[in-house]
Design a protein that fits this description.
The chain is of the alpha/beta class. The protein contains 23 helices and 16 strands.
C-alpha cells in the first residue's frame, strides 16, 4: 500500500488517481469517504459539528483504509495530528508530497477551514514535522505537473531497493528508524541530531574500521570533526572497564554535550555506546548504525543500554533513546552465515509474540535471506522494527507490555552467563530459550503440541538449535539476578502464536519436565 501525505494544496487528491492508474492499483481519498459518510462537505462538518467530530470520523476512515487491500490512499492534510494514525502508518510506504508554503497558499487560495482557524505559517511548519516523521519517501511538487509528480512517485516505489522509515513515537523523545540499502551514506539528512553537533565520536570494532570509512567521510563532508575509537569484539567489551576507557577518550577528544556518539557495530557496540552516551555529561546524543541483523531488528531500537557484570548480563544500564537509527541492509553483507542465522532468532521472536505472518515470511525466504537479498531483508527489518516501535512507544520504561520482547531471553541469558559468554551466539541461546519457553507453556496447558512444533519447524528452517542439555540448578542460580525476578523468576510465555504474556510464575516441576524435553 502507498499512502500519500502532505499539506493542503500538495496535490494528493489529484496525483493519487494518476499514480494508482500507473501502478494498476485502487485509489481512495479519505476526505471524499468522510464527506460521503457524513453526507456533508468537510467545511460543513467543521462548521456544524466542530473539528473534534471531524477528527474522530477521520481516524475511523483512515484505519479502515489501511486495512483494505493494497492500493493508493490519500490522507487529509491534518490526519497525522492524531498519534494513533501516525502509529498505524508504521511499516507502510508513506510518500510525502512536499509543497512550498507560498505555493500551497496559491493553490488553495485560503479556502480551507484550518487556514481560517489557525495561523497558516505555524500550521504549515507543525505539519511539515509530522509528515517528515512518517515519510519513507519525499517527492517535491513545486514546479511539477500532477503527471510528473505521479511519475516521480512511481519511479521511487518501483525502485529495486526502496527505503522505509519507522518512527518510535515517544513525544519529545521520538526518533526515526530508517531502513534501506545504502542509507548509511545519507546520514546527515536522516539524523536530526547531526545539525547541532561539532564532533562525532565513532565507536566500532577494529574489523569494521574499513566498513566505517564511507560513513566517516560522509560525516566529515557534513562539517563534523570525527574521532574514531575501536573496541575489542565480544561480550567482554560490554563492561564498566571498557566504558571507563571510552569516557577518558571522550574527554581527551574534547567531545561536548551537543556532540554525537555514533555506534557502528552489533548489539555489543550499540548497548555499550548507548550506555556511555547516556552517562557522559549526564547524557549526550547517540545514533546507531547497526551492522548485524540482530542489532537492526532489536538491540539498536528502544533505548535500552547496558554493560555486563560477572553476576549477569546487562545488570548495569540505562534507558537512553537515540536521536536516530539507520539500518542499512548493505552492511549485513559483512556477516558470516552463522551470525546472520543467529540474528534470525530475534526476527522469529517477533513472529512468535506478535505476527504469525512473519514466521511464514522467514520460512518461505530462507535462501533469499542467506543470499542477502536486499528487498527481503528490508521487509524483514521493517516489520520487526515496526513491532518493536509499537511496543516501546507503549512502554518505554519496560514496566509493562515491553517485557514480552524478552521471550526466550530468560533462558538465553542464563545459558550465556553459564558459558561465560563464550562459544554461543546470542541468537543461538535465544533459539534454545524460545524452545524451552514453548515446552514450559505446553506443560502448563497454555499451548498444545502444534505450537511447540511450529517453534521447532521455523527455527530449524534457518539452521538454529532447538534442543540442548540444560542444568536446572545452573539456570536457577542465574535467575536470581534476572530483571524479571519478583519473589521468584517470572517468564514470558505464549497463549498462542502471536499472543505473548509476561510475568508468569512457573512451578519447578514444570521446569524439570521442560529440561527433560529439551534434552531429546
Amino acid at each position: 500500500m502507498i499512502v500519500l501525505v502532505g499539506f493542503m494544496g500538495a496535490g494528493k487528491s489529484t496525483v493519487g488517481p494518476l499514480l494508482a492508474d500507473r501502478l494498476g492499483l485502487s485509489f481512495m481519498d479519505t476526505d471524499q469517504v468522510i464527506e460521503q459518510r457524513a453526507g456533508a462537505s468537510i467545511e460543513a462538518i467543521f462548521a456544524t459539528a466542530g473539528e473534534p467530530t471531524f477528527r474522530a470520523l477521520e481516524r475511523e476512515v483512515v484505519a479502515e483504509a489501511l486495512a483494505e487491500a493494497p492500493g493508493v490512499v490519500a490522507l487529509g492534510g491534518g490526519a497525522l495530528e492524531d498519534p494513533g494514525t501516525r502509529a498505524a502508518l508504521r511499516g507502510f510506504r508513506v510518500v510525502h508530497l512536499e509543497v512550498g508554503f507560498e505555493e500551497a497558499l496559491r493553490r488553495v487560495g485560503g479556502e480551507r477551514p484550518m487556514l481560517r482557524s489557525r495561523e497558516p505559517r505555524g500550521l504549515f511548519e507543525e505539519r511539515a514535522e509530522l509528515y517528515r516523521s512518517v515519510a519513507t519517501d519525499v517527492v517535491a511538487t513545486d514546479g511539477r505537473s500532477p503527471d510528473q509528480v505521479a511519475v516521480a512517485i512511481a519511479a521511487a516505489v518501483e525502485s529495486k531497493e526502496p527505503s522505509r522509515a519507522v518512527t518510535v513515537d515517544l513525544a519529545e523523545r521520538s526518533y526515526p528508524v530508517h531502513i534501506g540499502q545504502g542509507t548509511a551514506a545519507r546520514a546527515p539528512e536522516l539524523l536530526p541530531g547531526i545539525k547541532d553537533a561539532e564532533s562525532a565520536f565513532v565507536i566500532t570494532h577494529p574489523r569494521l574500521v574499513e566498513l566505517a570509512a564511507p560513513l566517516i567521510e560522509t560525516l566529515r563532508s557534513a562539517g563534523l570533526r570525527v574521532v574514531t575509537t575501536p573496541i575489542p569484539e565480544g561480550e567482554e567489551s560490554k563492561s564498566l572497564a571498557t566504558a571507563a576507557t571510552l569516557y577518558d577518550k571522550l574527554a581527551a577528544g574534547n567531545i561536548r554535550r551537543d556532540d554525537l556518539v555514533i555506534a557502528l557495530g552489533g548489539g555489543v557496540v550499540t548497548d555499550l555506546a548507548g550506555f556511555v552516551a547516556s552517562t557522559y555529561y549526564r547524557g549526550i546524543g547517540v545514533a546507531h548504525f547497526p551492522t548485524t541483523l540482530l542489532a537492526q531488528v532489536d538491540a539498536a531500537i528502544g533505548g535500552k543500554t547496558g554493560v555486563n557484570l560477572d553476576a549477569g548480563k546487562n545488570l548495569v544500564g540505562t534507558i537512553h533513546q537515540p536521536v536516530g537509527v539507520v539500518c542499512d541492509v548493505a552492511l549485513l553483507r559483512t556477516l558470516d552465515e552463522a551470525e546472520l542465522r543467529s540474528g534470525l532468532a530475534e526476527v522469529i521472536k517477533y513472529g512468535l509474540i506478535r505476527s504469525p505472518e512473519l514466521l511464514d515470511l522467514v520460512a518461505d525466504n530462507v535462501d533469499a535471506i542467506l543470499a542477502r537479498d536486499a528487498r527481503v531483508l528490508i521487509e524483514l527489518v521493517t516489520r520487526c522494527v515496526a513491532i518493536k516501535a509499537e511496543v516501546v512507544s507503549a512502554d518505554e520504561q519496560d514496566i509493562g507490555v515491553r517485557a514480552i520482547l524478552n521471550y526466550g531471553h530468560t533462558f538465553a541469558h542464563a545459558l550465556e552467563q553459564a558459558a561465560g559468554y563464550h562459544g554461543m551466539r546470542h541468537g543461538e541461546a535465544v533459539s534454545i530459550g524460545m524452545m524451552a519457553a514453548a515446552h514450559v507453556a505446553r506443560e502448563l496447558g497454555r499451548v498444545d503440541d502444534s505450537v511447540v512444533d511450529r517453534h521447532r519447524e521455523v527455527l530449524s528452517s534457518v539452521g538454529l538449535p532447538t534442543s540442548a542439555p540444560l542444568d536446572i540448578e545452573v539456570l536457577e542460580k542465574a535467575w536470581q539476578h534476572d530483571k524479571k525476578y519478583r519473589k521468584g523468576v517470572r517468564f514470558v510465555l505464549l497463549r498462542a502464536i502471536g499472543d505473548a504474556e509476561a510475568g508468569i510464575a512457573v512451578p519447578r516441576e514444570a521446569l524439570l519436565k521442560m529440561v527433560a524435553s529439551m534434552a531429546s
